[in-house]
Structures are given as C-alpha cells and as structure tokens.
Amino acid sequence: MLAAGRVACQYHVMIENSFNDKVVLVTGAARRIGAAIVTCLHANGARVAIHYRGSAAEADALAAALNEARPDSAKIFQADLLNISEIPGLVAAVIEWGGQLDGLVNNASTFYPTPVGTITEENWTDLVGSNFKAPLFLSQEVAPHLKSAGGAIVNIVDIHGQRPLSQHLVYGPAKAALAMLTKSLAKDLAPDIRVNGVSPGAILWPEDGMTDAVQETILQQVPLQRAGDPKDIAGCVLYLLRDAPYITGQIIAVDGGRSIGW
Asked: Do the strands 47-52 and 23-26 form a parallel or antiparallel pair, or are they unpaired?
C-alpha cells in the first residue's frame, strides 16, 4: 500500500500545499521513471493523469494504490501517441476528469539500438515519433489549457541527445530534437507557460539486458561512481513544475556528473 505521507520522492517540500490539487498529465507513466514521477507528484498533493499505451495492468495498479491513499486523485488514460489523431481525445478526457490542466510531463519514449545498415523506416517512425513528434503535438494541444492555469511543461530528454551513444543513430538525434523543442517552446509559449527539460543519465538499465562489464564501464564515466534512482528524476521534475517560477528553457542533467565529460 502506498503511504499517504509526502515521502515518495527525495525532493523535500519547500512550499507547503502549493501543489495541492494541481492536475498533471504524465505520459508513459505506468512503469519505471514515469511511475516514479507520478508517485512523487501525487505524494506532494497533485492529481495525476497516468497515460499509458500498452501497460494497462501496471497503470491500473498504480492508480489504484494512489486512489487508496487519496480518493479520485489518479486516473489512467490510454492512447497511442504515435497516432497524433488520438492526442486531442486524450487531452479532452484529462480535462473532463481533472477540470483543468496545470502540468504536462512528456516522458513516453522508445529506446533501442539502430546500427548502420539495419535502420528501417519503421524504426524512424517509432523513435522519432515517440521522442519528438508526440511531445510536439501534445504540447501544442495542451498549450491553451496550461496558459489558463499558468502551468508548465517538463520534457524528459537524455544526456545522449547531447553526446552520441554508439549504435543509436535514430534515438540520439530524436532526443536532440526534443532538447531543441524544449527551448523553442520555452521561447514561443512565454510568458504564460514555462518549458524545461530533465536529461537522465544512468538511472535504470535497459530492460533487454546489459552486461555487468558494460554497466561498470558506464559507472566509471560517472564522477559520483554510482547509478542514479528514478526518484532523482522525479524530484527534479517536481522542482521544475512547482518551485521554479523563474526558470524556463533549461535542461537539467541528472546524471551524477557524467555529461561534464566522458
């Protein structure tokens, strides 16, 4: 059972009750970093719209735990964000439930290698679609609602949008495009809507497996000499949504220092 106390993320509450009943949509929120973000925002008073594409059971279990702690504080919403025609319906459903929209976290992402000689148009559609196209059209759709609420957008980027990752010739450029989108939206949506990004480093290892040797090589490139935790990302997202009224157009690397040089 999820405890009702505000302890689900490492970022301490700075402005008591300032986030209570704010409505935040988090994409790709059923599992992993998305679920950590949802749990953290909820623990600090927000009502959370949990978007998922295929992880229905995980999304439902997460919402059930959150609603047990605070009734009607979480709801799941299914949509395939690669099909942008589903985006207006998703946003309308969230508004109908929440009555407003105060924040959007573009977290949904696909990630896998695409070595030279193997790249297909399907890879392009999938990786660019989830990491760049969907955040663009979703941000456009929610902009009028966020403007009314004085809300904010946080995009989950990647340190490999800045420094290339071997054999990820589509994923890296897609995240680089998301980084530029973050800055472009910050300029175009100001002063009503703030837009920032968070770039994770070694937080969770890929689900399809990674050898201990590769993991150790990566950790040797991290000045803090350890992997991070999803709560580190969630705390930074909370900060950018709630406690950073004079920050926009910035991308914060939460990577143990890895991006300063490897």
From this structure: parallel
